[in-house]
Fold this sequence. Notes:
- By secondary structure, this protein is an alpha/beta fold.
- 47% of the residues lie in helices and 20% in strands.
- It is built from 12 helices and 10 strands.
- The chain has helices at 16-22, 41-44, 66-77, 96-107, 121-125, 127-140, 158-165, 171-178, 196-213, 215-234, 236-253, 264-280, and strands spanning 5-10, 30-35, 53-57, 82-86, 110-118, 148-152, 182-192, 283-286, 289-295, 298-301.
- The chain has a 7-stranded mixed sheet with strand order 3-2-1-4-6-5-7, sandwiched between helices.
- It is globular and about 60 Å long.
Amino acid sequence: MSSPISVLLPTVEPTAACEEVADQLGPADELLIVHDAESDPVANHADELPGRTRTIRAGEPEGCSGKANAIAAGMEAARHDRLVWTDDDFHHPPDWLAGLRADYERHGPTSEVPVFVGRDPLAVLFEPIYVLNGTLGVSLADIPWGGSVIFDRGDIDEDAFLADLRRTVSDDGLLMEYVEMTTVKRTRRVAIGGSLRETIENQVRFTQIVRHHQPGGVVGQAVAGITVLLGCVLSPVLTAAVLTLAVGGIYAAFGVCRPTYLLAFPAVVLSVLFTPYTWSRRSFVWDGRRYRWHSKFDVTVVD
């Protein structure tokens, strides 16, 4: 018999994800909806939430991101050792939780992979970059994605993890350093962006995650950027063709049915040209809060 599961879902709104996940709970499982304040809409609708669901007030973050603060509060409140993290910004089909449960029995700590789909023109243009880094990169490197991950308290040094979580930004970036993860080639489509500013802020945040949690990735990004720029100078047509075909193949491998692979060449070039800006920025906005991420464990919540 499999272990009971505590699902942690940070959200301030009573979104469809709440009911989707609650409907999949086993008799001993629980869903913890973690929010910031009593004034959040989800707290006001607590009585309408499905059974075996609890709301947890995390409070305002101090020295960490709102997401990290919510995950820490959820882990402390969870009744079970088997934990699932998820987000409210993608569809959870009826077999989602059962799939993760089975994955853990086969592989131990397991994560699915995201496919980020743009909600504004710039985010749409960046979709090939999201697939290269957020889908292929996560899959190849077995990097946990906090939107759909399962592990057990016994898989990590929980006390040290929670202490670190409350002084950093990226929940899954930190989890990567605490547990050996297996990513399964099962994707979830996640809408991203919504405005030009939000997409730019996301790019800055993604860059800072690499900077603080995968410093070796900086070298890889630099080499890839130089290669693309040289290709643009020496043979732009060939470079465009190779990039488009390669990214199209990656889309196909992950079952991404989006014509945006045709934007691979301009997306990569724009990303390379955009990199100095994202690296030079020292603050970014995420879910309405501005953060200054000075070092991995030195975060200031600006407003």
